[in-house]
């Protein structure tokens, strides 16, 4: 049976990835998840830690962002589905960047966010094949998309 | 031995997919089939069922069609061969849409329909590498294309 | 100023193309329109007329559809925007095929049809950036998209 | 002489586009600028204004974002250079989305923002070929890139 | 009005190119023709003549074929339509090579040859949108494809 | 260890494919071979045998060539290396077509033919990364390319 | 008549570009040349001059190389033919980088260098359609490729 | 777990490849390495050894470079990450060529070289996602990129 690659982009401060993964495990779906490195400090400092310190924060950040891009671009390139989650706080421009990047590659895009962000995310949502609010909805979409299972319909 | 991915698009009211699959199993061909969700009501309602109800039928349908597209575009993108079946009834514009979509991606397209639709389907047929009427012909094509077996010729 | 290429696919029995063209001329928009050959008999017979008669209608149609494809695939490939119109009558599978073809090429797709076809066209509509009912709406979209003009907003 | 297409994405509340255009005119550079519709209300309402009102704000926004996408995706697709400006206020997720979209298409990306946003935009900046703070820097880049002119070096 | 690029590949010993060009001029069609260098000796010797003599015929030929490829690949890449003519004599493998090359690029392919070659060219013909015998048929196809003109139908 | 896909196109009357396969087996190389159907009559008649007889040889051949294309285009699309063999007899235009097709897809092309055809095949050879005369040379290339083994050099 | 875009990459210390341009002007060929900025100091310092000084030479160079890439990648992307010249001195890794970049894009590559560099440049030469030593040879290739003119053959 | 393909291009006189491979084995990372043939004489002579001797060194080298390209282009095409190492000696234009080639294909590029080459490699470095000096840094990048492990951060 075909394996589905699902990339989970965006917010890193709540356990939404774990919730999706638990739901998918429970449903026994053939999904391989990938994601950016979600350890905040490691993600910020990976560049200087490996490649050498920078006195200027701009280059400190540039080095880190480039090293992270080795991972993220490769995994987004592999993905069948890219889920982008926008949380309540922070600018999260990298999440929106990933959504645009995935969209231009023709990936199936699913956006997850609360109702407060609806207007601000309208261009991102318009590029998506589904807009959801909860991890449980992602699991249900995967169960339907992969297995054709839909509660109340297919037994 | 190479596995062949065959996507079976179109008509969902007769057992043509099962007939092809049975024939392929009997011939022991290395084929992995995929298809849209063929449960009509689930396919119609998957969007609102998972993402929330819509009072307006247009958005009800839009949500469902987008969720189904997560599945169908991914699987068509994976396919080596796309078979599109047009039945006797209904508009079946999604079948013709899939044929155009697959054709632009350079997929090997096989169209299956009865003689009544020949003129109306001429542009679709012209994009195909084979036009057939029965599931058995699909099985024979797969047996020939994959194994080089042709009844009366190769033993 | 940039010129926009707009391909007008689909129904050939009403004057919707002329209405759009007249509206665009009145608004003085930099648009170059293209379309399939809309002379029904010529379109049906172009293959046999140029390449030689066929006793079998299947090959008669195939020859014609292939010659027409020289035109249509080239012009859709050139288009920035592909408009597909579904009329009240006939199967119009070539229109849906064009929509799928344009969609896979990443063209901006606009679908035009009456409310009766809403459910049957839901997959096609879901691939579109706009769904309209009248030629006048197409003209307004072009005026907005090209010039940023929107009645009641921009003077 | 070659014409350069430059798309100006992002913040719409200050006159940065006009400043770049004035500078480019003064330098007599062969540049054709393009941009999203920058009339805020027209951009928000274009969908419902042309395609019909929606009681639900989500679909109101979706319709508008899709119509705007006809313009923005076409023009970004045409661009040699995509400039994305992040202002002081608002979420500006559409700007970051455009940056990701342009990046995946291989466009030359220039990002413009103040020093406050440096850390939050590190992934976007890392995808850029230049990060600037002022319109004047954009003009200087264009003068150098197109003409090879650099103040203090080339006379 | 759109200009059509038509590449004329293949046989160089008869005046078929001139006949097509004369017909297109008479019909006043917006077509720009291109072709390989048809001066046989120049085509054979261009490599050694410009780049230096080779004692070994294999490298003599290689140098020439590579220099010719600068022209032919560029012009085939530009073409909307690639016409490949097979004459009565010689192996003409470069013509078949061009047909395969153009086909993989998705060009509209027209093949011209006499009835004697029908069986030997079946794979090439199967990749074509039209198979013709005479230059006059090419002109008629262009007139139909570009202008929608078909003798006996459109006045 | 990586598996290499090698497509063997062209001449079907001598045992060159078997010789290459035997050599590769002896060298224990991780190669998966593919090829067109090499049963001449089956290849000629597969279309009419499965899809129905045709009184006109042109359509008989067209049907067969299209069915064969389902196999050949898929397998060439999969290949890392495409070997095209030209024999002593016949036109072999399909071989040259395959070479052009593979070349436009960027496949590594190896051409095999005797010295008599050197001049006639110069354009095909010029697109190749190696030109050989014997199956043994193909085996040696594969052993070198995959394992870095070269007789007299690497032990 | 078609215009040819020719990008002249590599060595910036001799007048080879001017010699090619003069020859092309004399032959009245429809060629538009492009090139990197050849003012050495401007090219080195463009980044810091426009975007701000850097104490670390690594970032000084990075900023400049990125700004130059806006120009070079765009112009190479536009080119039909990329000429790469290797001079007698310096590492010239950017020239070899451009050759690899152009090759992967499928550009027609011409390499120019003296006989001393033959062995060291063998991989670069192997990707080229012509290897020359003098600007005059480039002019002759262009005259042949564009006009079919070859001294001693075509009058 | 996903396997990562890493291609190791460039310098062949020190044991940097073995050091990276040892480090990756120690960290038990799912990486498949590939590389050009690093046996210098075999790499130089593979063409003439298999395809026949050449009296002219230019063709001797051309044959070898083409045979090597069968391997290198295929493996670079497969790679997720391309590492290019520049050593202290030699021109190493093939390394820079590979970097340009990989960059145009959108591969994640890592460049390894000593500080002496910093200025000469600025264009190559500017195309990279990381610039390192030692094999150990490559191993650390792979451990971070694949597993999210960063010494001092993730335990």
Cα gyration radius of chain A (Å)? 17 Å
The percentage helix of chain A is: 40-55%
Major sheet of chain A: order of its strands?
Answer: 2-1-3-4-5
The largest contact between protein chains, plus residue counts on each side, is: A-D, 38 and 38 residues
Find the count of extended strands of chain A (DSSP E, 2+ residues): 5
- In the CATH hierarchy, the architecture of the domain at 4-37 and 78-147 in chain A is 3-Layer(aba) Sandwich
Question: What is the subunit arrangement here?
Answer: homooctamer
Q: Mind telling me the CATH class of the domain at 4-37 and 78-147 in chain A?
A: Alpha Beta
Strand content of chain A: 15-25%
Order of helices and strands of chain A: EHEHHEHEHEH
Distance, first to last CA of chain A: 21 Å
Q: How does the major sheet of chain A shape up?
A: 5 strands, parallel
Any idea what the shape of chain A is? globular
Kindly report the CATH topology of the domain at 4-37 and 78-147 in chain A: Rossmann fold
* Overall mean pLDDT of chain A: 97
Structural class of chain A: alpha/beta
Poorly predicted tracts of residues of chain A:
none
> What's the helix count of chain A?
6
């Amino acid at each position: 049976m075909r394996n589905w690659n699902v990339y989970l982009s965006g917010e890193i401060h709540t356990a939404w990835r774990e919730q999706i993964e638990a739901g998918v495990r429970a449903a026994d779906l053939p999904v391989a998840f990938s994601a950016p490195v979600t350890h905040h400090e490691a993600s910020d400092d990976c560049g200087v830690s490996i490649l050498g310190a920078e006195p200027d924060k701009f280059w400190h950040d540039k080095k880190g962002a480039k090293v992270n891009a080795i991972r993220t671009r490769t995994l987004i390139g592999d993905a069948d589905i890219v889920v982008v989650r926008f949380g309540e706080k922070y600018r999260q421009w990298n999440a929106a960047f990933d959504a645009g990047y995935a969209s231009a590659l023709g990936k199936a895009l699913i956006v997850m966010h609360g109702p407060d962000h609806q207007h601000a995310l309208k261009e991102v949502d318009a590029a998506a094949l589904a807009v959801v609010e909860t991890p449980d909805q992602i699991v249900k979409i995967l169960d339907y998309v992969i297995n054709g299972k839909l509660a109340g319909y297919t037994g």
